[in-house]
Each structure stands twice: as C-alpha cells, then as structure tokens.
Write a structure and sequence with these properties.
6 strands; membrane; 166 residues; Nuclear Transport Factor 2, Chain: A; rod-shaped
C-alpha cells in the first residue's frame, strides 16, 4: 500500500503541474493576442489620422499655376462619389482659379481621429490657409474645419466623403 500512494501522489502532482502549465499558456496567449490587437488598432488609427490630415491639406492647397498637379493629388486620394463629384467640379473650377490667379497654402493643420475600424475612419481636420488672388494681393487667412470619411482601398486611405463643418 505504501508503493501505490506515492505513485498516485506523484501522478497527481504531474497532472496538476500540466494543468497549471496549460492554464499559463492559455492566459499568456489571450493576453498576447489582446496586446497585439490593441497595437494593431493604434497603428490603424495613426495611419488613418495621418492620411486624413494630408488629404485635407491636399484639398485646400491650390495654386493657379499648378492647378492640374494640385487637383491631381486630391483625385489620387479620393474614392467613390466624392471622387466623381470632385472630378466633375474641376471643369468649372479651373477657369475660375486660373483667371483669379488663386493661391491657397496651408500654414497649419491639426487633425483628430473620431472613429473607425480596420477599413473605415472619420477624421476631423482644422486648417489655416493663407489665400491670395488677383484682387487680394495680401494673404487672407482662411480657416476650415473639414470632416473626412475615409475608406481603406488596398494599402491606402482614401476620402469617400468630405464635408465642411462649423
């Protein structure tokens, strides 16, 4: 009887050790996955925020002498209905911008991430844009607050909706 009790005690200790090791692996895996998802979410938010800021800067930056290049950057960063509407508006906008010799640059841009997931995001951007034209040779500082709905297209964030907000 003394030989079976130590054997059972040893087997029981091994079983408890295996269960504890298995529980530790499960806890470590769960915590590791949660940390990985949190980091991935933070990276996605940072990418969307940077893209939204740059896309808003591209939208406000306009120089009559570089109209096609400036508006081309906006078209490149756009998708969906917004892209179509913007492209359609360019035909009427170009002669106005060129005849007025409009120049709009961005002096300051501040962006805030509102919401989103891996494939879409909402970003708010505030901009200060000194603007000149044929009738205003001294820059007039214009301020804009823009809400951008972004969509992940391939590896890039693109504007699907752009609204001026107050």
């Amino acid at each position: 009887m003394t030989t079976t009790t130590p054997r059972r005690t040893g087997q029981l200790l091994w079983a408890v050790a295996v269960l504890l090791a298995l529980a530790a692996v499960i806890v470590a895996t769960t915590l590791g996955r949660a940390a990985w998802e949190r980091d991935r979410g933070a990276a996605t938010r940072a990418e969307a925020l940077a893209a939204g800021r740059q896309l808003a800067v591209n939208f406000v930056t306009l120089d009559a002498s570089r109209f096609d290049a400036d508006t081309g950057r906006v078209v490149e960063g756009a998708t969906g209905d917004f892209k179509k509407q913007y492209e359609d508006a360019l035909r009427e906008l170009k002669p106005v911008v060129e005849s007025n010799r409009t120049v709009s640059t961005v002096e300051r841009a501040e962006a805030s991430y509102v919401s989103g997931d891996a494939d879409s995001a909402v970003v708010l951007v505030g901009l200060v844009a000194p603007t000149t034209n044929a009738s205003a040779t001294e820059p007039e500082k214009k301020t804009y607050r823009i809400r951008l709905d972004l969509a992940k297209v391939g590896d890039s964030w693109k504007v699907s909706t752009l609204d001026f907000v107050s």
